What we know:
single chain; alpha/beta; ten-stranded mixed sheet; two-stranded antiparallel ribbon; globular
Amino acid sequence: MAHRTAPSSARTRDTSAAGAPIPATPRPDVALNAPAPAASAADGSAAAALDQLLQSGPWTSQGQVKTSRSTLKYRCTAEFLPVVEDKLASTGQPPIAAVMCTAYQVQSPPGAPQRPVCFAFNGGPGSASIWLQLGALGPKRVVIQDDGYAPAAPHEVQDNPLTWLGMFDLVFLDPPHTGWALARDDEARKKVLSVDGDVAALTGVMRQWLSRHRRWNSPIYLAGESYGTTRGAALADSMQASGVALSGLILVSCAMDLQTLRFTAANDLPYALFLPAMANTSQYHGLLKGRLGTSPEAARAAAEDFAQGDYLHALHMGARLSDHGRRQTAKRLGELTGLPPDLIEQHNLRISDQLYFFEALRAQGRIVGRLESRVTGPMGANRSRAWEFDPGIESISGPYAMAGQAYFSQELGIDLRAPYKLINAEVNKGWNWNRGDAQGNHFASTTPDLARAMRRNPHLKVLVASGRYDLGTPYSATDWSLAQLDIPTEVRTRLTHRYYDAGHMMYTRTADLKALHHDVGAWLKA
Length: 526
């Protein structure tokens, strides 16, 4: 159970006006200068709310956290920075959105070299950065049980001795319409709630933060989780193009290639790539027999071997596969997942994520969690297959929401009345996945951006972290994406992939929080 932390001893509020931004050079296919339509009453209200946000804060506080090596004294600054359309900021147009930046900077002695800065963000799209901030990186942490289930209320933050503050100063970014951040009007929302518009906006905000806080001499790192890896891969290239040479990129629970994750017609890739994580999960829940059930390693190895060979062949053959081949494939899939072979044949040898969630533990009346597959939830009495909630995220969203809201207001002194939006489903629903001139019938992908950034910058290192019990962005799908990066062997030596025995937010498990912290430290020194 988390214990209550004392309020910050020193807290001040700076009400000075927001400074002028230094915008990034946007991609040519991002229409940052398109004319805006006539303002509606709703747009006027949104614009007033945005202007009020940009005039508020910054909120500053002081704190300290004890790690295994030292006691770190830090200053926290929470502020809203504007997103602007005009590349040269010469026309006087108002900002189209605001991004919230919550920065923790360790107080260094005079004359010391500038510390590295790590910009961190979550994904969704539509998710605020609270998960990384209060889960693994920041000086405070929300504690979840090691088995992935939520503890009972009250939910509070506690000191995090495994904070990354010993390695970097940390800046957490909440993009528009996450947390408290907003866009000016409907036209602005359309611009920033898109793959490329989001990248252009955050590139400008990060450059602006570096100027405002005089940190251009610091080594710069990015850390993204989930869709934050989609974003982070593209940002690595965008930042390079705008004059910021990154020192490193940390990708937690990768989602750079949407084709590997979407179970749609004529896309057989996810059926093979999800299988090892499903086998790993089935072994955990006691669904596998014989040698496969003896260890997660045995289950994963067998599933990886089958997925990369006979199963891919069967999927490719389709109706051309013989009856004997179908029966053998269904039998082996049943052995690897615990699902009945007859059910697998009824679904044309294709086990989607939804099929697995509802059928793996149907006999027990349980639904398997998506983002944390060690966690399960009860089905309704009618055993419906309607996806009403993800047990894997429900177990942590409540504790993070309640502890986070209290921390921001009581510890950091942020006096905004609106609720902090951890996950904005409307952002996710309205997200524009098209890139450049592409429209429809394609899958968003930012691995080409990452490959290009790694080829352009000989000092850019990449660390990838995957949870083996993640059925949202499975580790084996990430293996595939990394293997497809268009980089030569000598560049690939700067790419590291590490694995953990929990789900999407593997850091909620204490052993993996420690392992991730150790791996980041070792990666920095390598």
